[in-house]
Structures are given as C-alpha cells and as structure tokens.
Amino acid sequence: MILEKIIIIIAVFLSYFLQTSVEFFQLGGIKPDFLLLLTVYYSIHKGEMYGIWIGFLAGLLQDINLGVMTISGTSQVRHFLGINILPKSLSGYLAGKFADSIQRDSNFSWFILVFVFSIVKGLLLFLLTAIFHGNVAAEMLVTVILPESLYNAILSMLWFRVLYWVIPPMSAQSREVR
Amino acid sequence: MLAEVLSKFRAGISVSLIAIFCIVNLSTSSNVFVDSANRAAATLDFFTSTFHSFKVGFIRIVDSYGNYTILKNERDALRKKLETTQDLILLLKYLEDENSRLRKQLDFQPSVQYPIIHAEIISLDPDNLFRTIIVDKGSNDGVKPYMPVIAYQISTVQNPDTGISTEVINYGIVGKIIQVTKTSARILPLTDQYSRVGIKVKRTGHWGLLSGQSQLHGLPKLDYISLDVILHEGDEVITSGDNGVFPRDIPVGKVTKDVFRGATFQDAYLKPAIDIEKLETVMILKKEQNNFKTYYDKATSSEVEKITEEAIEKKNEEK
Q: Which residue intervals of chain B are DSSP H helices?
C-alpha cells in the first residue's frame, strides 16, 4: 500500500519533469499534458479517489512552478495556487466516474475519455484564469486547448500502454469497490 | 452513521473541499498556503534542476554513442581514402569553419551596457496556457525581480539571389524576471498572456505596446501603433525603454504580414527575434527597474528669489 503510494508520487514527479524539462514531445508549440494523462490513467484503472488526489498533486506542482508575480508599478500580487489543481482534480474525478461505463483496455475509449477530459480541464483552466486573473484571449480555446486535447488523446493510445507496462494497475477485481 | 455517509460520499466531499481550497486561494492575494507554495518553489526548482542535469547527461551519453558510431564509420572510410590528400583538405576546411563559428560565438557580446548573468533554462512552460521559464540562477547570483532577460540564437539565412546560406547571430528580448529564489528565477516571457512591453517601430520611431495576450499562439500582438505609419512585413521592432524594465533599442522581433488598421490605432502580430521554444541559455541583465516618480519639493520664497536673480544674471550675461 505504502509502496504503491510512493510509486504514484514518483510517477507524478516524473510526469512533471517530462512536461517541464523535455522538449522532445513539443509539436507546433503545443506540449502534451503528461500529468493529466497520468491522472486519467489512474482514474480509469483505480477509481475516482486516485484521480482526485493524483490530480491535486499534479496541479499543485504546476501551480508552484507558475510562481508569483508582483504587477509592475503596484503592490498587487498575482499568484496561481489553485488554478491547475481544480481542473485536474475534477477531471480525475469525472474520468473515474465515466470509466465504470467504458471498456478500460480499448484504444478508442482512451482516446474519447482523454479528449473529453482534456477539453474539460482546458475549459476550467480558461474560466478560472478569466475569473481570477482578468481577460484571456478567447481564441486560445481554438489555438491552444483544442490542439492540446487532440494531441493528448492521440498520445494516450501509446502512453497508456507505456504506463501499463511500467506501472501496471491492480486487477479489475481488486479495483476499489464503490 | 456519519462515518458511513462520509465513506459513501468521500469522493464528492474530497472534490468539494479541493474546490473550496482553490477558490479561497485564488480569491485572496496572500495566505499561509500561498506563502508555503512560494517556499516550496525553491525545493521544487532544486529537483527540476537535478532532473535537468540527468537529462543533459543522458543526451551527452546518447550523443557520444552516436558520435562514436559516426567516427568509427568515418575512420573506416578515411583509411580507404588516405592515399589521396583531398579528404584531409576537406576535414581541415570543416574544422576551420567550426573553429571560426565557435570563436564567433565566444566573442559575441550584446550591445548593452549592463553586467550580464548567464543562466541555463531548467524548466519551460508547465502548461500550454501559461508561459513560464525557470533558470538556474537566483538571488545568490545577484538576480532580482524585474531584471530584463535577453538571449542570442544562431540562425541560418539564405541569400535569395545567390542561394548561399550564412549563419547570423540574433539577439533579442526574452522577458523579465518575476520571481527569485536563492538558486533559481522565474521569467515571464514575451509570449505569456500577462506580458506587456513598451516598444517602438525602428524604421519610423512610432511607439506602441507589445502584449502577450494574442489570438495567435506564440506570436505576441503589437497594439496602439499610430495610423500615421504604414507597417510592412519584416519591419523591425525594438524596445522603447518606456516601462523602466527593459533598456531601450534592444531587438524584440519583426512585424508579420498580419497588420490590422482600426479606427484609431492599428495592430499587428510580431515574430519574436528569439525563438523562445528553442532556448537553452539566457542572459539576465543586471539592471534595476527605473523609478519614474518625480517629487516636487516646495521651494521657499528666498529660494525662488535666488533662482530668479540667477536667471536674470544669466540673461544679462548673454546679452
């Protein structure tokens, strides 16, 4: 049990480093969201509680990375704590809920699930930014969120197999009973 | 009973608690969680830096293996061709070119009068919606918030008439420092939606504002450019120095073909001089933010009389 949690924490950190320090996966200025992929992967195989808390940890790392800035010429401080946590946790929760009604080992299911929850995550992130940090260009929905979701969905078909090989989930019988 | 209810709805309760946590944090400017997250940034940057070192080491190993294979093949080929001196001449030419290119890089110094801190990028863009760069130099190295960050990049330019490619070194603005820990610093790049830089069009001298909040991904938007100037594709844009952060006359980028003339101003998209997505190292200028506040001290009547007398005397002397 403890070993499993340690493995999850290591997996989250490795996904974070892949996302922030490895440019290999960047296509046309868009990176895949490895942290969301990990969250959805665990949600599918281990249930929504795993999705929620892995999403929380993943979002927390991203928010810490975004840091704090003082707006030039004023004493107003802009920080980001919470802006990635909520979209990722909620995506993990919803993915876990939906995973009950899909085939867990199908490429098509992964594609649809990851695409839908990447859009959900992107929309929530966009809304939170717009509400708490002022205006955001609406075109980002088309120029950033949509391509990122597509990229995540396509990559999930390969990445989930890699994750399955590296960190195999527990069997379906031992999946958390809710 | 309560335990049963909590157990049954634990996922919903967890999400609700997380939602409250996030909204409270985003609504307040500072609290214990935000402060703790700021302190954790230094630790996280340390781990990121360690991972970055591993990555660099791994790339070097892969590269050296690749180089080894290439060199082995080259050696075999050269053994066969050793009888002719042609290959040796070509090799010498290659080494000469490489040597001069490396010398050019080493000698390069951007034309700014501030001391420079060289820094390596350890983290880039945690999310596609936000742009943040983290570098491996912090307050221990003298980095402070609002210091401007520039970089240089080598690019290949092909002459359309002759078709000959030449390597040129570009330099330009990357962004500004927004947060500093002891061993790392965060940069807000030009392309981030919160970035604003005062600029001017080099050809005409007209001022404008460069905003990272743009409809086109990776291309910041030039705004508030006077309608008096006709913007052309490729017009160079430089810093105006008006916001007190960036020194003036540092290249920012070039105007793209998308220019929109509005009723009062015109706007356009800008291709940054530095391709931020391909950056590996940057230079932080040790320039403090200018303070433009002017204080008017109330002069006493005797001081006013003295100044007036001096002015009259000066005028008389001139006559």
A: 2-8, 10-27, 32-81, 86-107, 301-318
